[in-house]
User: Which sequence fits this backbone?
């Protein structure tokens, strides 16, 4: 069973090392790891065509995978990496089991409220909103409801853990818990 | 031809009005609009089950759609709304034509560099990175390469326009341009 390892680890200075650790852990639980960056990017003329080539490789890797484990740890702001969100949606549409983890235990609501310095009010329909008027989703979820909902609908799970800042993208315990749950479901 | 209208407009204080304008424009170009919030959410016991119910409705609406137009205007930070990114990935996996727009003309690279106050350096592999060591994608793209790449691979387009801040989620010109391009391709 092939597992696509989605997440913003690709942006880390030591990406190769971190991805290799995730790949090794995935094998240890009995799955075949499929990781972005596993195929060589062909030479291209422009920056944009290089980006398109990488996207095409990652889509092919996803098409060859049976399951996804997505790292939804907030990236450059209050929410998950949008590339990872795209990939999670992609694998959900393919009907694949979907798992995710986040190395913070704060909910989507908590993080957005904090980004508004706690200035969240309730409108006439009892819906929480920021000072800019934008609604704040309050569904006891890790991130936007499409992400949590997509995972739940496919029998998956989202594991959260509070990890110290320096280890935010390096701690693999929550990831490993996803592997363990999926292995119990599919391999044991 | 049914078009799923993805975007963070659902969070606006005047969401219904804005969505109704997008629905009317979509009809004017000859498409059938499919918009999140078009179906009634059943009563649920918990916050979380309500979120899951909305996700399920939106997935069903996407499964009934033939195309997506996604609003990738940056939402609460440097990147697109993650729910919209999930939906774009979902429709790309279904092989549907995908279009998008953003009401800012700044590239992903420009926005991330600005979030680092311009402190972007180039590493030994000539890859731009922020002071936190995280790589900054530099592919002349509107957002993360999975989003731009997924749209391009399906023959779509991303339209960008610089819109004044107060109109960021209210200006429909770039959205209308997507409708026009798609109508030329599929309906004329």
Assistant:
């Amino acid at each position: 069973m092939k597992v696509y390892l989605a997440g913003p680890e690709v942006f880390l200075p030591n990406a190769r090392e971190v991805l290799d650790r995730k790949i090794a852990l995935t094998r240890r639980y009995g799955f075949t790891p499929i990781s972005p960056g596993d195929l060589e990017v062909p030479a291209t003329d422009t920056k944009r065509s290089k980006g398109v080539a990488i996207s095409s490789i990652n889509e092919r890797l996803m098409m060859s995978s049976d399951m996804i484990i997505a790292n939804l740890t907030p990236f450059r702001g209050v929410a998950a990496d949008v590339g990872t969100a795209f990939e999670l949606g992609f694998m959900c549409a393919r009907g694949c089991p979907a798992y995710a983890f986040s190395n913070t235990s704060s909910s989507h609501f908590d993080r957005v409220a904090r980004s508004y310095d706690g200035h969240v009010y309730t409108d006439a329909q009892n819906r929480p909103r920021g000072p800019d008027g934008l609604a704040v989703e309050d569904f006891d979820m890790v991130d936007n409801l499409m992400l949590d909902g997509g995972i739940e609908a496919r029998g998956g799970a989202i594991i959260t853990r509070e990890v110290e800042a320096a280890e935010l993208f390096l701690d693999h315990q929550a990831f490993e818990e996803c592997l363990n749950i999926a292995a119990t479901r599919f391999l044991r």
